[in-house]
Design a protein that fits this description.
Number of helices: 13
Number of domains: 3
Shape: elongated
Structural class: mainly alpha
Largest sheet: 2 strands, antiparallel
Number of strands: 6
Distance between the termini: 129 Å
Order of helices and strands: HEHHEHEHHHEHHHHHEEH
Oligomer: single chain
Helix content: 40-55%
């Protein structure tokens, strides 16, 4: 009798095990089907994971845009693999040919879609604001200028000014879509401070750094040839030393929305602290973002007595030590 009972229990356990095994196989098959791709990869979607989004919100949006078959199985897979807590915000390039496993791997990788942004040497903040607006990082130039003037940024980098004008380092940046606005500017300013570490004799005092950036921004806009930057910087240093106005056309051009092909005498009479024909010393702030070469030339200028220069017409300048020689050069290259 005991043997019959044992046999009966054994049959029951075998049946239960078979049911459980069949259920597991069926569940695994269902999960495999649910996690497969929904299409052939022809439909591409820029999928945004917003900061603070949890698994439920992300799963719902993946279902809404038609990239997963089953929210239930996707969430289960994410939890079983530990990926549920590793979702990173940003914009990801997804397509309907990706399986749920590939989607999960992508949105937890942090490798978000990036946009290339190139800021040329010498550009001022209005131009940079227009570019970043065009690239959809800011809603408008005004919004960019507002963020570029944030007190938190100025205090973080010890910039003694009303904005980060001049400290946004000219370079090519690869920025993730959806990157926080203040962090975009902070990243570019931080890049400035990393790059200037390579310049011999670069100052460390914030006030001296700011004066250097102001003068370097003028050198950047005045120099047409790279090899003349250190000479142009020397001219301005000599004029500052002797308390003579810089008389830089570039500082006057900064006052206009778009640079003029040519400045007239009436332009040089404009009342402004940026008009270095009328005001001695440095203008109140940089007139653009100087590149590494202009910054280096400003900190390490040529040893020369030159105090004037005039554009010759071929991109090069004629340098003079005194006003008499300078006037003769102007007559020669600019005409009477």
């Amino acid at each position: 009798m005991l043997q019959d009972l044992h046999l009966r229990y054994r049959k029951i356990w075998l049946a239960v095990a078979l049911i459980l095994f069949s259920g597991l196989v069926l569940f695994s098959a269902s999960m495999a089907v649910a996690l497969r791709s929904v299409g052939d990869g022809s439909r591409h979607i820029d999928f945004a994971v917003k900061s603070g989004s949890g698994l439920a919100a992300v799963t719902t949006r993946l279902q809404n845009v038609g990239l997963i078959h089953s929210p239930f199985f996707f969430k289960m897979y994410m939890r079983l693999t530990g990926k549920a807590s590793r979702i990173k915000y940003g914009i990801y390039e997804l397509n309907d040919g990706m399986s749920a496993l590939e989607i999960a791997r992508t949105i937890t990788s942090g490798k978000t879609k990036t946009i290339s942004v190139t800021i040329p040497e010498g550009w001022h903040n209005r131009q940079i604001g227009d570019l970043l607006t065009e690239k959809k990082f800011f809603a408008s130039r005004a919004e960019f200028l507002e963020f570029a003037s944030k007190k938190s940024l100025l205090e973080k980098f010890q910039i003694p000014a009303k904005s980060v004008e001049g400290y946004i380092f000219p370079d090519t940046y690869h920025l993730p879509q959806g990157y926080p606005k203040e962090k975009i500017i902070a990243h570019m300013v931080e890049h400035f401070f990393e790059k200037v570490k390579t310049i011999p004799n670069f100052p460390t005092d914030p006030k001296k750094i700011h004066e250097t950036v102001i003068l370097a921004s003028i050198v950047e806009r005045e120099a047409k040839l790279k090899e003349e930057r250190a000479l142009i910087a020397a001219v301005f240093h000599n004029r500052l030393r002797d308390n003579e106005p810089l008389e830089s056309c570039a500082t006057v051009q900064y006052l206009f929305e778009k640079p003029k092909p040519r400045l007239f005498y009436k332009d040089l009479e404009i009342e402004s602290p940026y008009n270095t024909y009328r005001v001695r010393g440095l203008p109140p702030g940089p007139i653009g973002s100087p590149g590494l070469a202009a910054l280096n030339a400003t900190v390490n200028p040529e040893k020369t007595d030159y105090k004037f220069f005039v554009l010759k017409g071929d991109g090069a300048h004629h340098f003079s030590k005194d006003l008499r020689e300078h006037n003769a050069a102007k007559k020669k290259y600019l005409g009477p």
